[in-house]
Structure formats: C-alpha cells, structure tokens
Amino acid sequence: MTEKRLICVSCPIGCEITVRLEQGTITEVSGNRCPRGETYARQEAVDPMRVLPTNVKVLHGALPLVSVKTDRPVPRRAIEAIMRRVRALSVEAPVGAGQVLADDLPGTDAKLVATRTVERAGEADGCGELDADQARRRRCRGRC
Amino acid sequence: MTREGPDVLVIGGGAAGMAAATAAAEAGASTMLFEREREPGGVLAQCIHTGFGLHRYQEELSGPEFGERLLRALDASGAQVLCECSAVDIAPDGPVVEALHPGGRLRVRPRTVIWATGAQERPFGSLMIPGPRPAGIYTAGLAQRFVNIHGLLPGRRALILGSGDIGLIMARRLHLEGMEVAAVVEIQPHPGGLVRNVVQCLEDYGIPLLLSHTITAIAGGDRLTGVTVAAVDKAGRPIAESERYVAVDTLVLSVGLIPDNELVAGFTPLDPVNRGPLVDARMRTRVPWLYAAGNNVAIFDLVDAVAAVGEVAGRAAARQARGDVVEPGAIPLVRGSGVHHLVPSRLLRGVPTTLYLRATRPMRPARIRIGEFHTQTVPAVRPSEMVEVRLPADALGQGGDGIPATVEVSEA
Amino acid sequence: MRIAVIGAGVVGALIARELTRYETDVLLFEKEDDVGWGVTKANSGIVHGGFHEIPGSQRAALCVEGNAAYEALCEVLDVPFARIGAWTVALREEDRPALASLLEQGEANGVPGLDLVGRATLRRHEPSLSETAVAGLWAPSVGITEPWALATAAVENACENGLDLHLAEPVTAIRTRGERVDAIVTSRGKLPVDAVVNAAGLFADRVAAMVGLCEPVQFPRRGEYVLLDKAAGSLVRSVIFPTPSDASKGILVVPTVDGGLLLGPTAQNLERGAVDATGTTAAGIREVIDGATRLVPGLDLSLAIKTFAGLRPETVAETFIVGSTAVAGFYQAAAMRSPGLTAAPAVAKRLVEGAMKRELGLRQRTTFQPVRRGIRKLLDLPEAQRDAQIAEDPAYGRLVCHCNRVTEAEIVEAIHRGARSLDGVKFRTRAGFGRCQGGFCTDKVLQILTRELRVPMARVPLRGEDAWLLGEEVRP
C-alpha cells in the first residue's frame, strides 16, 4: 500500500488530500472538501497532467521564438519527450496565434499551438498600412 | 504647442492601461494611450505560461493570448494608441502631460489621466548582499525576457532567490530549457507564490524549495561562481552555522515588485503599505483629474483583476470627462488587523465595488470584516493570494458619510 | 619622441592629455577593456577642499591646486562638476576641537571661504542632520564630479589631439638600456619608447618593479559604499563629513551629480597584492549604514539600489609619488590615494610642465584643441532645441533607460565613442544606473550593442571578455 499526499490546486483553499493506492489502484481518497478535489486527486496521484508552455524556433521572424502551449493537458511523464520534439521544431514566419505547429507530440493527442503572432522580419516596422484586416497595424509606431 | 484633450489619457499600455483605454473609448470618451514599448502588452508577451483569464474569459490562457484579447478590444475601441511614447512630465496645473516620441515631443492637456504604469522589479543592489559585482545576476523578469523573447539562456546553473510566482515560473522555465536549477530560496517560512506553481514548477521537477533560508553573500570575479545560503531564525536573521556554499553561475531574483509612481508621487498621496496612490472605488486618486489602476496602485497577483480595475478607471474617467460627475458620499477605509495591501482606500455610496486585499499571514478559515457593512467567512487566506470582496451598490446603507470603516481579517 | 603612459585612470588620462599639448607621440596603455575601470571607477567622487591635509605637505598643495582647477577643466571637457560645498559636523562637544583644528589647517593651506558655525546655523542649512550636531565647518570649495566621466573625457580629447589609445593591452615589461628607458613590452609586442609614465594605480608597484625601482611599496585600501536612489537625494544639499579619525576622513553622506546619495566609505587596509578584493562585506555595509545614519538619521535604506567597494593604492608614508626617478625617462604618478582625484589635474600639470618638459625637451604644439563636447543628452537640451534634435534623428525620441532618461541616440553615440560592453554604455550614459538597475533596459541596451557592433547578443559582455552575460541559445 502506498500513500500519496498532495495539495489540491482547484481552488484557493488548497486541501491536503491523501490518496491510498494498492498496486497502482486507488483505494481511498480523503481530505478533500469537494468533488473537484477528488477528481483532481485521482488523476494527480496516478498520472498527473499538465499544460506545457514553451517556445518554438521561428525562421525569418521579427522575433527568434514563438510562444506555444499544448492545447490541452499532457501527461507529466511525457514532458521530457515532448520537449525533445519541441526543440527539433522550427516554423517559418509569419506565425499566427492559434496556428498548430505540431500534432504528433509523443505520448499525447494534444497539439502544439502558437499563442501569439510573429510577423516576418522587417515588415513590422513603421506606421504601416500593410494589412487593413490587422487592426494592430493601424497603430502609430512613432512616425506621426 | 500644447494639444487640447483628449478626454482620457492613459499612461501605460499593460493590462490595466489597455483595459482602461478600451473602456473609456467604448464609453464614448476621446481616448489616447501612451505606451513606451513598441507594442502594448507590458509583461504579458514574455509570460508564456498559462493561468491567465480564468476569471475574465473563463478560459485558461497564456500571457500572450490574454494580451492579444485585450489588444483586439483596444484596437476595435477606437482609442488612439501611441507606441514608443514615454511620458516624461505631468504638470498638475492643467494638467499638462509631456511625452517623448520618435516622431517628436508631445504636450497634451487631457481632461483626465489614468496612471497605469505598473511596477518594476526590486534590484539585487537593494538587498545589500555583500560580495563583488560579477555578471550573472538577473531579476526574474529580465531573465524571462532573455529566454522567451530573445531566445538566450542567462547561464548554465542557477539559484533562484524568492519564491514569488515569477521566481517559481522561471525555475521551471530554466529547467525545461536545459539549465540546472540548484534551488529556490525563500526567507519566509511559506512560499510566496501560488501553491499551484509550487507544485507544477518545483515539485514536478524535483527543484528544492528552501524555506526560511536566504543568501548571505555572493562570490565570483567577472562572472558569478556561487552564493552562500543560510537558514534564518524566526526574526529572519541568518544563522551563521548553517551557511553553505552553492556553486552557481546565475542568480535569479524574485524579491518583490515596486510600484512605479515617479511622475505622480509629487502631488498625489500614496498609501504607504500599497506603495501606490490612494484611490477610491472608481480608482480615482485624491487629485480630481487623476485615476490610477493596476500594479502601480498595489501589487496584484491576477492579471484578470488588473484588467478589471483598469476598466473601472476607464469608465469612471470617461464619465467624468463628459461632465457626468456625481459626487457620492464617501466612506474612507482604515486598515485594521490582518490586512496588508488594500485597494481601494475609499468606498463610494451607490457604487458597486470589488475590494482587493491581502492578508498579512495565512489564516484558515478567515473572517473578513468591512466596517459594519459586510462580513464574510472564507475557507482560507494566504498573503500570496489576493482576496476579492464584492460589494454591491447598496451595501453601504444610509448616513455616515466620511466616517471611516475598518477592514479586518482574522481567524474565524 | 615617443612617450608611453601606463594606466588610463583619471591620473593617467589627464597626464596623457597634457602630453598631447607637445610635439611628441603619446600612447596610453590600459589593461582593462575601457578607460577608468580601476580606482577611478569606485570612489566618493569628491573634489576635496584640502582642509584635511597637513599644512606644507605635498598633498595639501596638490589638493588645493587641483580643486581650484576643477571648474575650468570640467567646463572645457564637458564633465559634470558641482561645487556644492561640504559641512564637517561635530556630533558631540568633544568633537569641537577637531573642527577648530581643521579650520586652522585649512586656512594655512589656503582653502577659501572656511567658516565655523554653531548648531542653529548648521541646522538651518542642513535640517536633516542629527539632532546632536553641535557645530559645523563650512567649506564652500568642496565639489562633486563623476571620476570616470572625467577620465573618459580627457582620453577622448587627447585622442582628438593625437593620442594613440591602447585598451585591453597590459604592459608586461619595460626594457632599459643603461640607466634609461628604452622600450616597453605589451601583450601585443615590443615598442621602443623614450619615456614612460607610471600611472598604473593599484599596479603601480608592479610597473615600477619592471625598471627595478622599489618604490612605491603599496597595499590596497578598501572603501565600501551604499548608493541610494534619487528619491533620497533631497535630504542633504552638500557633502557631509563627520570629524575625522586618525585613520580616515570617516563615513560620509555625499550627493552624487545625478541626484542620488552615496554613503561611505569605510577604510580597510588589505594585504599587498589583494588588488581584486573589490567585494563588499557584511561588516563593511553595516559600518557604512551606522556611520551615515549617525550623521543623517532620517536616511531611508529601503532606497538603496547598490553597494560596491573601491580600492585605493596606499603607502605607509601616505604621500603621492610624483616625478622623475633614478631611471632616466621613467616618471611616476603613483600612490594616488585620497585626495588623488582632486589632485590629479595639478599632478598632471606639474609632472608634464615640470620634470618631463625640462628633461625630455618637450616643445609645445600650436594646434592643441582643449575643448571636448560630451554625448548630447536630449533632456539636457533647452526645450526649444529638442524638437529639432528629434526631427534630425528620431532615436533621440526613443527612451531606452527610463529611470535616467537615456535615449537610444545617446546609447548609439556612446558605442561610437568606444563602448563595447554593457558597462561601457552604462558608464558613458548612466543607462542602468538608476532605480531599476537595468531591470527594464538591459536587454534593449544589449540589442543596440548587438546591432551597432554587429556581434551576436550572447557575445556582448558586461565588461571584459570574461564577464559573459548570456549563455546558449534557447533554440539553436
């Protein structure tokens, strides 16, 4: 029998929950004040899941990196392998927020999505009227 | 040549400023935003981790995504946004705001100003830790910018001083990007950041958290070679016998944020605990044309709350600029026991208000009392987590204008 | 005629500049990556009055002479200097005789305007002083400056006048022929010279030993400091001294030229050779805080932004070693302990116009250009000129360091004037010296250095090569 103690992060209370396991199966969950705590504890004790935020290399971009995240939690145990995959990736600018950069992450169905836009190098300067759709470019960058 | 207007000038385009300018413009006021960087967003672009927007958008977003939402709303609102524009002087007689800008200098005479400049990080030098001055010492935000924006690691092996959220986030960041993170050192007996971050940034990766510890010296020549770590007693004093040397080439500091009120401190009173301007329920300071919102008022922990107070200021400033000023009765708030940060410092009759406060110590459960108007019990409070208390418009009853109400947090 | 000056601190820089007034090749060798990064970088920045010096002494004469020269020198070189005066404060009755003694000394040394006043007058001028202060000695001739700015300015002006500057090039040996200087050997090779000036600060003894001289015998004296942000600056108007001890002038409260407040220094003699001991200590910082708060109790230490320590070359005799030596062509400007900064202009003039001119037969040039303009700072320009400046170069409208209001154009100019590292930009522009200590602007300054020097950002150091700032790329 193993006992795992963990602090629930579902709400600010932070209940100290104890999970008892017999050969990998949960036999008891105690210390939670609500059902969300139990759900969290059952997953966390057996196979913790995490949203992974990181960066991917950008080629020919105004910035060298684009911030990304997995579009849903991934198993914590897969993070190391996922990071190896992430390090091998690169994407050509421009990259749009929400763009899927990888859908073949090891150990999960989660996709890797960009969380910001990175424009091509050299196009983001000046009081550009380049793209009427992108309202941001209507913003004066100091030449007015 | 001084330009007349706008109705609302927002200084600072971080989360508070963007939300304020959006709200003001949406309320029909002519609105301008001065942002000193090339893009608005403040630190959001470099906060690539998630945990933002749970309250505001009921979604868990990364910093850039949260910033993107605010930016889209800002662009759609019609507010005029000037980037690379730094306010350099505010003359209270006017008021007249002077700013610097690659296109030339600007002088404007706005009807109202919203001061939303956020905060700076406390630098290493302010800790007065003995030792030489080697390369390799960074505040966490600067290290974060190097890693996430410029794509460069600050070193090879790091120790993090301070367990506030930014320190915890950077522990994970540096570890995932291949640096060794020797430990996070925290002088208090409890962590400074959210429990969620302690779990997901330190415990997940086996990064030691040394509570009740501090750094008593640094060593190195041109580059840092190590730090001396020591346990501290209940009074926070280092215990000499516990000192040990930890070899690292990088020291990352998360030792506090200091509100930036440089241009306004000369003419509007600051709350000494918040270290920001005293504001009422509309985020208006004691100076009638000056509003303040965001981390320059007090250090918030949730960007959602920062955006929310920005909106309050934006709406109120817009209304005032239109001449729509109703001066409701005011109830000053007095800080009682158990209360650290407290925003606002003055409630307004008939104005629904969200009160933001921090407890001075962990309490579980805790009772929050606001004068005779409001009491509530919450399961737990922690200094690292701001508490929001919503007071509806009729919470303040009748009579008793100007009579202070004491805000207290105590064990329930 | 070729003359090599060793050491580009404020003394060496001023000597090199003096020498460029003459028809001779002048070379200045500095082992650090930039000018003024030894003793010059870390001291109180005070231009002393001379009332601490023993009448008739060499230090007294050079201090008073140097002090008098500062205004004109800083004017012509465009270096900050403010003659804010100084109060030496007697905190107890028993300290009164010390004040009287300083007054007497000062008057004997020709220090102008000294005035001994009582409690009421003292407190009227400096209301933040300790309640226990019973009397004060006013010395209007005391000033403050920025020592590394003076060294940099002198070198820039000297280069305009033909100086050949060699940074990051230590002198490793000096060859003599007979009893006369013949050549120097540096990290880059051998060079025949007719004369050498030893202005090598903490390393002057090693340079002297290169020609077989056993003077100076020096050891480093460490002074620790605490710097408070500009918000503290309005607490005092002049330099505040306590009555001196046998060991030193004491722990002072010193306004800085950019509005901050400097507390210190301690005075700790270290062993010979401890020339790298520029670390602060817990005891030293405590001593600074104790000493400073004794003078000005209302100091808010939460406004501290930096602590640092500086070393000074000290000898047992405590005198400067200036002039010719037993080795023909080898001159010393060494053991420049306090008041070395103040005396430097006088030392440079006396050495060059005296012994060197005479012994080397130096002939004056008619083409010496004494005036040097510093980096134009937008927010120092009169309002009317600012718009034109920005119109000419929009980089003047872009602030990079917000704490100290430094624009991108000023940083670019600093790089064009020789800054190759983060500190090089900092010391020339004060970017990163303010309240946030570079928390906001460091990456931007590095970006500008990267762009202007055309090197990858990770290769830009804090100071010299070994002070690397950044490691590997996140995504190589």
Tags for this model:
heterotrimer, B: 412 residues, alpha/beta, Immunoglobulin-like, 31 strands, 19% helix, C: 476 residues, alpha+beta, FAD/NAD(P)-binding domain, D-Amino Acid Oxidase, Chain A, domain 2, Arc Repressor Mutant, subunit A, 6-stranded mixed beta sheet, 5-stranded antiparallel beta sheet, globular
Task: Describe the structure in your own words.
The complex is a heterotrimer of chains A (144), B (412) and C (476). With 144 residues, chain A is α+β, with helices and mostly antiparallel strands. Chain A folds into two domains: 2-46; 53-137, Roll (CPE0013-like fold), CATH 3.10.530.10. Chain A is built from two helices and ten strands. Chain A has a five-stranded mixed beta sheet. In chain A, strands 1-2-3 form a three-stranded antiparallel beta sheet, covered by helices on one side. A two-stranded antiparallel ribbon of chain A has the order 4-7. In chain A, a hairpin with a 2-residue loop joins β2 and β3 (25-30). Chain A is elongated, with a radius of gyration of 22 Å. With 412 residues, chain B is an alpha/beta fold. Chain B has three domains: 1-121 and 257-324, FAD/NAD(P)-binding domain (3-Layer(bba) Sandwich); 123-255, FAD/NAD(P)-binding domain, CATH 3.50.50.60; 326-412, Sandwich (Immunoglobulin-like). Chain B has six helices and 31 strands. Chain B has helices at residues 15-26, 63-77, 140-150, 165-176, 195-202, 303-321; strands spanning 3-4, 8-11, 31-34, 50-52, 61-62, 80-82, 86-91, 96-100, 106-109, 112-115, 119-121, 137-139, 157-161, 180-186, 209-211, 213-220, 224-231, 244-246, 250-253, 257-259, 270-271, 276-277, 290-292, 330-335, 339-343, 346-348, 353-359, 366-370, 374-378, 387-391, 405-411. In chain B, the strands form nine sheets. Chain B has a five-stranded parallel beta sheet with strand order 6-3-2-10-23, covered by helices on one side. A five-stranded parallel beta sheet of chain B has the order 12-19-13-14-15. In chain B, strands 26-24-31-28-29 form a five-stranded mixed beta sheet, with no helix packed on it. Chain B is globular. The model of chain B has no long low-confidence stretch (mean pLDDT 94). Chain C is of the alpha+beta class and 476 residues long. Chain C has three domains: 2-40 and 147-217 and 318-360, FAD/NAD(P)-binding domain (3-Layer(bba) Sandwich); 82-143 and 220-312, 2-Layer Sandwich (D-Amino Acid Oxidase, Chain A, domain 2), CATH 3.30.9.10; 378-468, Arc Repressor Mutant, subunit A, CATH 1.10.10.1100. Helix content of chain C is 30%, strand content 22%. Chain C contains twelve helices and 23 strands. Chain C has helices spanning 10-19, 58-77, 96-108, 119-125, 147-160, 204-210, 282-295, 340-360, 383-392, 408-416, 422-429, 442-453; strands spanning 2-6, 25-29, 46-47, 81-82, 86-90, 115-118, 135-139, 143-145, 164-166, 171-177, 180-186, 189-192, 195-198, 218-228, 239-242, 252-255, 261-264, 268-269, 304-315, 321-324, 330-334, 399-401, 406-407. In chain C, strands 9-2-1-13-21-20 form a six-stranded mixed beta sheet, with helices on both faces. In chain C, β11 and β12 (189-192) form a beta hairpin. In chain C, α10 crosses α11 (422-429). Chain C is globular, with a radius of gyration of 22 Å. The N and C termini of chain C lie far apart (53 Å). The mean pLDDT of chain C is 97.
